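Blinded run. Sample ID left blank on purpose so nobody reads anything into the name before looking at the predicted structure. Input follows.
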Amino acid sequence: MLANLVFGMLGFAYLYPYWAQTQPVDYWIDLFPSTNAEAVISLVYTIGTVVTLLALVCVGGTNHYTRRIIGGLGTQVLVLAALPITALVSESTGRCGVVIACTILIAIATSFLDSSVIGVASLFPRGAMEHVQLGIGVSGLFAAIFRVVSKAVFAPSDVAPSTTAYFFVGSCTVAVAIVAFLYLLRLPLAQRCIHANKQDAFEFRLLRKIWRNEALVILSYATTLAVPPSAISAIQSFQFPYLNDNTWRPLILLTLNAVMEVVGDTSLDTAAI
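Blinded prediction complete.
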């Protein structure tokens, strides 16, 4: 079904920018040789998403799915396209400010997309939610593969050009998701599912009924995110030190981590079935 394919693309696109930021380790090392930039990105992103999600819940109001999804994806497209500007800033403080600002924007956009994409999928027949989760699962893997390919096709010294191409491909990928979502809105199925269901605001009294499930979700996310990508990419190789020098080591580790994450998600889905 075309609708399920679109939801898979939405799930892939809305989390992809975060993974795209954590993958070009060699690029961040060139720009910030004395700082673990991936750790800063992960920390700022986590704080930004948590604060934004709490604000959205506290403020409440009707969830305008279309505005949030198009606005969130559009913001991510612009930020990914603007990230290569970081290399043009001469001062380290200025470069750090650009990266942090871009990370905050991606975190805010992702928070708006998080509830909206899943909320829209819940209005559709069975299969939509599963495809969203599938897209989320493979987004990190494809981000890792894209980075490996972009690094391999350029000369070792062309870190900035390869990363610029990498971010450009990511920006175009998210842009395709916007087009796909606009196409989804024109389908008769979408007209029935979205417009036939009232978009209500969140009610705090529901927490008394679902707090156990929410606690399990929080625990699951906390344990999953306890080891950020920066902790993995920082592991050095003693048997093959040349992999540390050419910065292939962190890319290999991040790619293996992404592969095993997909394997784990698939195994859990199979076991549940």
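Unblinding after everyone has recorded impressions. The radius of gyration is 19 Å.
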